[in-house]
Amino acid sequence: MQHMHSQEAGHFSTFNALLARHRIRPTIMYPVWTVAATALGWGTAMLGREAAMACTEAVETEIGGHYNGQVRVLLGWMREMEEKGEEVGEEVTELVGELKRIRDEELEHLDTAVDEDSREAKGWPVLNTIIRGGCKGAIWVSERV
User: Is the CB of residue 113 less than 8 Å from the CB of residue 77?
Assistant: First the structure.
């Protein structure tokens, strides 16, 4: 758990630095997502270790897919630039590398959750479906506001 927490803190720091460097405001929903994530984490932890791991599995499944989509878009842009004879800047190349690294770490968390019996949680199919749906909804909203 400490390893995952340390990696998540690093992800948070990386994205905050990117937002500041590029003068991008975070989603207006950030305070809501903070409360929701805290409630979800505490709520599933109160249901037991397996439920907490089920939460991790569901969240990391959606986050991993989201990062995959972002990497695909950036790689497509890079390919188009190269086909036009344009130079792909070092910053874009580094961003893709960072996204891949973070995605891989998130997927490592998913694997850890499964290894730690996430699917043994009572009501796992329902819990998984609800949490994944909430994550998809949060991503969708955050991309728009």
Answer: no
